[in-house]
């Protein structure tokens, strides 16, 4: 498998933190995390998202190799990785295959278990919908699931921002990501072997990856801690950036 050169947004100065966006998002998910004092924020667009190329193979392994390629291009031996949702699935793959490249891990709004047979069928149905009706149909299907009820009631700007991010994703990348998620392995057996400092961040209104299973996940990872952010759905870094950055900043300061 050959990795591709990803479009990457960088900001700041200091040791690297690589931010891995979820689905169907891009680097802009992390726009509030691009000014972390004392750290370089590196926010790639995964293949098929944002400004990165969308042709080629899609799998968690391939996403992981592309991201390790980002470190290699910068001659970085390792980095802190922060992955949200599908970004967390990719981070599990990096921890499995390239553990020496991970200085510390932040798992935001994600889960370790793989898809159920019903979940796999839903992925295929969503991929067919994307091929038939484009990104707009996916955005309409997902927007009220990913944005928390508080943001939906009080933050129409956040709702509009998340919708716009979903609308600009190429269909090929949407379909590829759905197949990669459908076929991803169960990462539960990995949890007890994670040997780097780990922070979990959950949203108390998250319907996609609820806080309760994330607490179980935190208990399964040696030494991990968890922060549950109030009034946040699935896109915590955009919905509650201050609380997200406070949790992340405290974790990074302790490394
Ligand atoms: C994501 O936010 O990356 C996706 O909703 C995750 C998923 O569908 O499993």
For the largest beta-sheet, the strand count, sense and barrel status come to:
7 strands, mixed
Q: Briefly note the structural class of the backbone.
A: alpha/beta
Along the chain, the helix and strand elements come as EEEHEHEHHHHHEHEHH
Q: Rough shape?
A: globular
Overall pLDDT: 97
Percent range of helical residues: 40-55%
Indicate the topology.
Elements: E1 8-12, E2 16-20, E3 40-44, H1 60-73, E4 79-84, H2 86-97, E5 102-108, H3 117-133, H4 135-146, H5 149-154, H6 156-167, H7 171-182, E6 198-203, H8 211-220, E7 225-229, H9 236-239, H10 241-253
Parallel strand pairs: 2-3, 2-4, 4-5, 5-6, 6-7
Antiparallel strand pairs: 1-3
This protein binds D-malate (MLT).
Structure description:
This protein is of the alpha/beta class and 255 residues long. The chain contains ten helices and seven strands. Strand 4, helix 2 and strand 5 form a beta-alpha-beta unit. The protein is globular and about 45 Å long. The N and C termini lie far apart (33 Å). The model has no long low-confidence stretch (mean pLDDT 97). Bound molecules: D-malate. D-malate (MLT) binds next to loops.
Give short descriptive properties of this protein.
alpha/beta; 7 strands; single chain; about 260 residues; binds D-malate; 7-stranded mixed sheet; 10 helices
Describe the structure in brief.
With 255 residues, the chain is α/β, with parallel strands linked by helices. 44% of the residues lie in helices and 15% in strands.
